[in-house]
Amino acid sequence: MNPGLQNWLSDEIDKLKEQHLYKVPRILESPAGGRVRMDGREVVNMSSNNYLGLANHPKVAQAARDAVEKWGVGAGAVRWIGGTMSIHQELEDRLAKFKSVEAVLVFTSGFTANSGCIPAVLADQDVVISDELNHASIIDGVRLSPAKYKKSEGFVYGHKDMGHLEDILSKAQGFSKRMVITDGVFSMDGDIAPLPEIVALAEKYDAFVMVDDAHASGVLGRNGAGTTSHFDLYGRVDIQLGTLSKALGVVGGYIAGSAVLKDWLINRGRPYLFSTAHPPMVAAALIAALDVMENDPEPMRKLWDNTRRWKEMLAANGFDTMGSETPITPVYFGREELAQTAEKMLFEEGVYALAIAFPTVARGKARIRTMPSADHTEEDLNDALKAFVKVRDRLAVGVAPG
Ligand SMILES: *Cc1c(COP(=O)(O)O)cnc(C)c1O
Prior knowledge:
The protein folds into two domains: 23-56 and 297-395, Aspartate Aminotransferase, domain 1, CATH 3.90.1150; 58-295, Aspartate Aminotransferase, domain 2 (3-Layer(aba) Sandwich). 43% of the residues lie in helices and 14% in strands. It contains 15 helices and 13 strands. It has helices at residues 3-18, 58-71, 79-82, 86-99, 110-120, 136-143, 162-170, 195-204, 227-230, 259-268, 270-274, 280-295, 298-316, 336-348, 378-395, and strands at residues 35-38, 41-45, 103-107, 127-131, 156-157, 178-183, 208-212, 239-243, 253-257, 329-334, 351-352, 354-356, 366-370. The strands form three sheets. The protein has a seven-stranded mixed sheet with strand order 3-9-8-7-6-4-5, with helices on both faces. It has a three-stranded mixed sheet with strand order 1-2-11. The protein has a three-stranded antiparallel sheet with strand order 10-13-12. Pyridoxal-5'-phosphate binds at residues 109-111, 114, 135, 137, 183, 187, 212, 214-215, 243, 245, 253.
């Protein structure tokens, strides 16, 4: 063991602990449902992205078991080296129909779809213009590209600030290509990107748009087809990213767009070129998940019923949900220590929901992030609300923002 490395690691971890940024995942001892067993305790789970309850859906699980019988458990190799299994192809064809696009390419995660696609479509004469609240995987993908992108150079616009975006676009005409990139649904605030305005500005200034619909997949649009569908912008968004790990309940990410985009990513998307394909049971489970989404409106209806009910319950009890428009529901606590103490107290009261604080969100804007799902019963949400009220009263704080 090299002491230089080992000591550096311990010192850096100590710094994280001092700054209250040190994370220890709790141990989940049951499937990821609305009510789970965690660290030996039964709790209402308000911190899962399993929006539609597909992660443990009987039809989805059965499809995975059947695929193990038929295909075994591994894909064997990278797709262009080992040959791409027909079931992977079938999943991409299904996704392309679902998204109403020419073609879809699946990556092993949403994260690698971003880090594979973004640098592949940009060259050094290009510029990327980003919303300041974009997800970490977008930021990393952008950093891998040879294009200009830095905030210090003026290429990051204020959150959903269309005046600022237009200003940047109008000054970026000297670049060869201009890409505007945004989350479809912002992962910490639960608000929706103003995609119609973004697309209109991009068209005005000869730019193209990439939208990361990780939290919109299965949540917004026809049968959960995402923000492009939600805003009826078919054919006007060049690159759509979706995840298969959240509402679709399994794992993976994909890029939806033109056939020539797919063709290019097969040849230049590095995580596609150099990382092994999903196990075939993943593709089979995802096809079954799409079957449920396209034929059973019940999970999406229940997701939105629970979302509306949960927001109403919180508002009626004086909590501020910070302008959220989707199932992602932040509950404002303000000071960092307050939210962190509330998280621990909520767990003692039988609710698992994470505190999100600086630097993930602005200082003084700490919140508990909750996510109702189709898997929650009325009783789950009632119990969760009781715990929130009890914890707030015990902390004796007003939680309306000052
Ligand atoms: C979760 C998330 C991702 C990553 O998706 P995975 O499939 O979990 O890797 C990418 N972008 C956004 C906006 C996300 O919220």
